[in-house]
UniProtKB/TrEMBL annotation:
<keyword id="KW-0464">Manganese</keyword>
<feature type="binding site">
    <location>
        <position position="313"/>
    </location>
    <ligand>
        <name>Mn(2+) 2</name>
    </ligand>
</feature>
<keyword id="KW-0963">Cytoplasm</keyword>
<feature type="binding site">
    <location>
        <position position="374"/>
    </location>
    <ligand>
        <name>Mn(2+) 2</name>
    </ligand>
</feature>
<dbReference type="InterPro" id="IPR008283">
    <property type="entry name" value="Peptidase_M17_N"/>
</dbReference>
<dbReference type="InterPro" id="IPR043472">
    <property type="entry name" value="Macro_dom-like"/>
</dbReference>
<keyword id="KW-0031">Aminopeptidase</keyword>
<keyword id="KW-0479">Metal-binding</keyword>
<feature type="domain" description="Cytosol aminopeptidase">
    <location>
        <begin position="370"/>
        <end position="377"/>
    </location>
</feature>
<dbReference type="Pfam" id="PF00883">
    <property type="entry name" value="Peptidase_M17"/>
</dbReference>
<dbReference type="Pfam" id="PF02789">
    <property type="entry name" value="Peptidase_M17_N"/>
</dbReference>
<keyword id="KW-0378">Hydrolase</keyword>
<protein>
    <recommendedName>
        <fullName>Probable cytosol aminopeptidase</fullName>
        <ecNumber>3.4.11.1</ecNumber>
        <ecNumber>3.4.11.10</ecNumber>
    </recommendedName>
</protein>
<feature type="active site">
    <location>
        <position position="302"/>
    </location>
</feature>
<keyword id="KW-0645">Protease</keyword>
<dbReference type="InterPro" id="IPR000819">
    <property type="entry name" value="Peptidase_M17_C"/>
</dbReference>
<comment type="function">
    <text>Presumably involved in the processing and regular turnover of intracellular proteins. Catalyzes the removal of unsubstituted N-terminal amino acids from various peptides.</text>
</comment>
Length: 521
């Protein structure tokens, strides 16, 4: 699919399909009014007759209206004008692209991207439009014997931007829009990688499969990749991680990817990072992704209903690989290390048992009271391993606790951090990306629930505040650096008729990396 940026003159161009917005109560946007003048006020008459109300989530296709200069005019409802915000804009964009795909149009011109959105400028609107376009086009049918016939039609999308008052400003707006378009397309590619990995079944997407994917990524983009095998982990003392994989026949892997971005010129006119020296971050950022490719719960076996969705327990790993791809595609001037501890959690004659005690890579001992609390066991050794990079910040991403779903549902990811500045940066990135997180406390009081009579700590703290005690457990391995933890158990995938990975929190991570690279709207 091809994209282009065009000025907002819908009445002077011809398109296979032009997309215009209508607010509730029949308020036409300026592009809609311009088109309406060309077609003899047809839109006004349709609205006056009650055939289109402008309600959010609705659309109406006009075929070859006389005088339009376009084969199709798609009216898209924007809801109430006073409530038109970032989320309403994104919802309208997604609905528009879905509606266009049901037509035979090979090209479409989107005027919605030129509409004013409170607190958001041209770059943000273009970036989100590009993400929405590719998100609505995403399909995963690789394992169907007869995949659905591809929706061939839409091949080109042009995105409108507001006309500037003078030529210099117009050129500046165009360059900003082009840069934002590239960012949006890269984020969408990162999300697609994360979705593809997460949607792939557990009998295919094994730890070895993730390792091969990392090696392919490294080979394609010429970045460093190291795969630690079981013997390497044993030598390092990663006994917490290795305790999880004991019941599985699939060998564990520990993936290390190292991207060293060029910091000479990020193309934005901004410094590479607010924590930088000579235009380059002095120390790397580290992303860690939980990579349990299938989680049966181990000896603490999960209920059978819905267990198929435990292939999604590697969404943290998928998302950090997706975020890495965004950084690579955009050549962000940052240094980024991605760590993926990956294995299966299965029952078996050699599986870890409740009551077992293991010594983590950090030397701290852990009493395993529940083998289904395995994510924190692989992450704690990864956090210890991260210290060797002397990181500027470490962010781990994990589908860690069902308790986070109880707390936040499927809207926001849970955020925990031992550094308020880092937490603030991630919250801001989430708001900008429309991939929101909500910060929860890491108070020392909660650590009391992790006390063990026989080891330095237990791996669970009981039902109360389950997502908080899980984060408190991880915090004991992150005391030497700035650290944040994203619990994406409620946001990384959907169940039911729309079952599948969402690609979250790739947008949040990508916008955080863009911020660190000095690219702000």
């Amino acid at each position: 699919m091809e994209f282009s940026i065009k000025g907002n003159s819908p009445d002077k161009a011809q398109h296979a399909c032009i997309i215009v917005g209508i607010f509730e109560a029949g308020q036409l946007t300026p592009p809609a009014a311009a088109v309406d003048r060309k077609i003899g006020k047809l839109i006004e008459r349709i609205v006056a007759q009650g055939d289109f109300t402008g309600k959010s989530g609705t659309s109406l296709l006009l075929h070859a209206p006389a005088g339009a200069g376009s084969q199709r005019v798609l009216l898209v409802g924007l809801g109430k004008e006073k409530e038109f915000c970032e989320h309403a804009y994104y919802a309208a964009i997604r609905h528009a692209f879905k509606a266009v795909r049901d037509t035979g149009a090979e090209a479409a011109h989107l005027t919605l991207s030129a509409l004013p959105v409170r607190r958001r400028g041209t770059a943000w609107k273009i970036r989100q439009a590009a993400i929405a376009a590719l998100e609505t086009a995403y399909r995963f049918d690789s394992f169907k014997s007869q995949p659905a016939a591809p929706q061939v039609a839409l091949q080109h999308i042009s995105l409108a931007i507001d006309a500037a008052k003078n030529a210099a400003q117009s050129e500046k707006n165009r360059k900003a829009a082009q840069a934002a378009l590239a960012e949006g397309l890269a984020i969408a590619e990162g999300m697609a990688l994360a979705k593809n990995l997460a949607n792939t079944p557990g009998n295919v997407c094994t730890p070895a499969y993730l390792a091969d994917t990392a090696l392919q990524l490294a080979d394609e983009y010429d970045i460093d990749c190291q795969i630690l095998e079981r013997a390497d982990m044993e030598q390092l003392g990663m006994n917490a991680l290795l305790s999880v994989t004991r019941g599985s026949r699939q060998p564990p892997k520990f993936i290390v990817l190292h991207y060293r971005g060029q910091a000479t010129n990020n193309g934005s006119g901004h410094p590479a990072s607010k924590r930088s020296k000579n235009g380059a971050p002095a120390r790397p950022l580290v992303l860690i992704g939980k990579g349990i490719t299938f989680d049966s719960g181990g000896i603490s076996l999960k209920p059978g209903e819905g267990m198929d969705e435990m292939k999604f327990d590697m969404c943290g790993a998928a998302s950090v690989l997706g975020a890495l791809k965004v950084a690579i595609l955009l050549r962000l001037p940052i240094e980024l290390v991605v760590l993926v501890p990956t294995c299966e959690n299965m029952p078996g004659g050699n599986a870890s048992k409740p009551g077992d005690i293991v010594t983590s890579m950090s030397g701290q001992t852990i009493e395993i009271l529940n083998t289904d609390a395995e994510g924190r066991l692989i992450l704690c050794d990864a956090l210890t391993y991260a210290k060797r990079f002397k990181p500027d910040a470490v962010i781990d991403v994990a589908t860690l606790t069902g308790a986070c779903i109880i707390a936040l549902g499927h809207v926001a990811s849970g955020l925990f951090a031992n550094d308020e500045a880092l937490a603030g940066e991630l919250l801001e990135a989430g708001e900008t990306a429309l991939d929101r997180a909500w910060q929860l406390p890491l108070w020392a009081d909660y650590r009391e629930q992790l006390k063990s009579n026989f080891a330095d700590m237990a791996n669970i703290g009981g039902r109360p505040a389950g997502s908080i005690t899980a984060a408190c457990f991880l915090s004991r391995f992150a005391e030497k650096f700035d650290w944040a933890h994203l619990d994406v158990a409620g946001t990384a995938w959907k169940s039911g008729a729309d079952k599948g990975a969402t690609g979250r929190p790739v947008p949040l991570l990508a916008h955080y990396l863009l911020q660190r690279a000095g690219r702000r709207d």
